[in-house]
Each structure stands twice: as C-alpha cells, then as structure tokens.
Amino acid sequence: MPRLGPSERASLPDRAFAYIDSSGRRRLPIHDEAHVRNALARFGRVQFESDEACDRARTRLLNAAKKFKIVPVGFIASQFETRRPTGERADQRVRLPSGFVTLLMTDIEGSTALVHQLGPRYRELIDEVWTTLRRAVNDTGGYEVEARADEFFAVFEAPRAAVDAAIAMQREILDRAWVDGLDVRIRIGIHSGYPTSTDDNYIGMDVHTAARICSVGHGGQVVVSANTREAVKASNPEGVTFRALGVHHLRGLPDEQLLYQVHAAGLPSRFPALRATRRP
After folding, report:
1. How many CA atoms does the CB half-sphere of 53 hold within 13 Å?
2. pTM of the entire structure?
3. What whole-number distance in Å separates Cα of residue 254 and Cα of residue 250?
4. In this structure, are 49 and 100 located in the same domain?
5. Which 3-state string (H, E, C) describes 60-123?
6. Helix (H, G, I), strand (E, B) or coil at 195
7. Helix, strand, coil percentages, rounded to 5, for the chain
8. Among 26, 74, 145, 233, fewest CB within 10 Å belongs to which?
C-alpha cells in the first residue's frame, strides 16, 4: 500500500489517526479501509509512550475496524499475552506431570462473532472466561499449561479430575450472565495419553488428538477419547456417564477415534452431530 505523502497526511484530521504522541506526531492512519488493515498489521511494531496511550490507540483502531466491517480476529488474538501463573503456580509450571496424563483443551464457540460484537471489550470477556477455567483447574488439582486467544490448555494427573474440571467449567459458563446478554459457550475436548513434555508444555500426537477432539464438539459439550473414558470408568465413574458418539476420523490424525460425550447433572445432553468429522 502506498505511503501517505506529506500534503495528503497534513490534510487529514486528527481523528484519522489511531495514535498521536506528545509531540503531536500522528501515526497509524485509519481514514480508509486499506490503512486500517495496515494499522492492524503494524500496531505491534509501534513504540507507544505509555500503556494508556497504547490502550487509547488500540480502542481507536478497533472502532475504525468496526466502521469498515473488518473483523480483526488475528489482531485481537495477538494482543493477548499468554497468561502465566505467578508464585506457587509458577513454580509448578516447571514441574508439569509426565507419564500418563489427561489433557483438557477448550475454545469459545462463535468467537469471531463475539469479537465483532464486542470489539475491544472482547478482551474483558476472555479474562472472565479464563478466570472461570482456572478456578475449575485449581479446584480439581490440575495444572494450567497455556492460555492464548480463545483457547485454554490444562493437564491432570488423574483422568477423573479432568472430567470433574470440565463439568465445573461448563456449569459455570452456562449459568453465568454475560455482558450484553451474550450467549457464551465453550467446547471442551479431553484425551489421556503419554505426551512428550518440554520445560513448560507438551508436544506430540496426544496433544494434537486433544486439540482435534475439542474442535469437533459444540458449545456446552464435553467430548472425550476412549482412553479417557476407560480410565475414568476404571477409577471412579460415580455421577458421570458416557454416551458413545461413534468412531470418527479427525483431521490430521492417522487413526480413527472412538469418542464419547460426558453426561452429568447440570450439563446439556442433546447436541448436533460432531463438527467436520466423517464416519468410516
């Protein structure tokens, strides 16, 4: 995109820029759609004078994006710093459990529409969602692995604890009154296995399996792998039942997966067929 010439820049009003520093220098032009898209791409490379200035510029930029009907999902996601616990939880982060563990992943259903409706307030909603998820993980003895954009990843040494955390998450999310009366729902996928652990995360096919299971569910639903279902039933299934959803081929995974839906008091029981899978 061609840069603004000096005369063209001078002819624009202050409101056509997302950021004006203390010396009056006007940066990040947002007077038309092309420049808004450019400002979204360049925002992270601008040195702002203060956090308050950055926040004001971000708000002006997002309002301009809304005006031109641009849904800046990537920009908003990039603005979320991965939240890492402090204190005792930070110490636990370097000692994530290894061996046979249960991986829980969540994402928000319809997040693009929520971004469009809330604009910069979407970050507040994400913070509230993460607070709910973290409370459930802490209460059941799990470990937060990472949180970014609309996704959340936790790990548990006991499979039943992961299922209990998922049930608590769904109950609170579904019962809560959200900003502007929005219907906020999360998908949850759970898989048990032997992922490879790094200093502060996990890698390997078991991680990909948990992510794919999460992606095919619906808001309010908890979907688990056969590994998790069998591990829970072998330990303490009281208060939880599993409805078979059939065998599915999940994108990118070499093996078919037998999936189950968690049933428990306070959770919805009826959902459409799983998303973007095919039965063999």
Report:
1. 15
2. 0.69
3. 8
4. no
5. HHHHHHHHCCCCCHHHHHHHCCCCCCCCHHHHHHCCCCCCCEEEEEEEECCHHHHHHHHHHHHH
6. coil
7. 45, 20, 35
8. 74
Pairing of strands 101-108, 151-156: antiparallel
Domain for residue 166, yes or no?
yes
The total number of structural domains that make up the chain: 2
CA distance 194 to 204: 9
Structure tokens at 242: 């599993």
Q: What is the pLDDT of residues 39-88, one digit of tens each?
A: 888 888 888 988 888 888 988 888 888 888 886 655 655 555 434 444 34
Instruction: Give, for 128, the enclosing helix (H) or strand (E).
Output: helix 122-139
- Look up residue 45 and give its two tokens: 């490379």
Closest CA to 131 of 72, 190, 176, 95: 176
The verdict on 145 and 243 lying in the same domain is yes
What CATH number corresponds to the domain at position 238?
3.30.70.1230
What SS3 state is found at 146? strand
Same domain, 66 and 92: no
Per residue in 8-23, pLDDT (tens digit) is 888 899 999 999 998 8
pLDDT tens digit sequence for 79-127: 554 344 443 444 444 478 989 999 999 999 998 889 888 888 888 898 8
In whole angstroms, give the CA distance from residue 65 to residue 158: 45
Q: What is the DSSP string of 1-57?
A: -PPPPHHHHHHS-GGGEEEE-TT--EEEE-SSHHHHHHHHHHGGG---SSHHHHHHH
Residue 40 CB partners (closer than 8 Å, separation 6+)? 61, 65, 70, 72, 74, 75
Cα 253 from chain centroid (whole Å)? 22
> Which structural domain, as residue segments, surrounds residue 25?
6-70
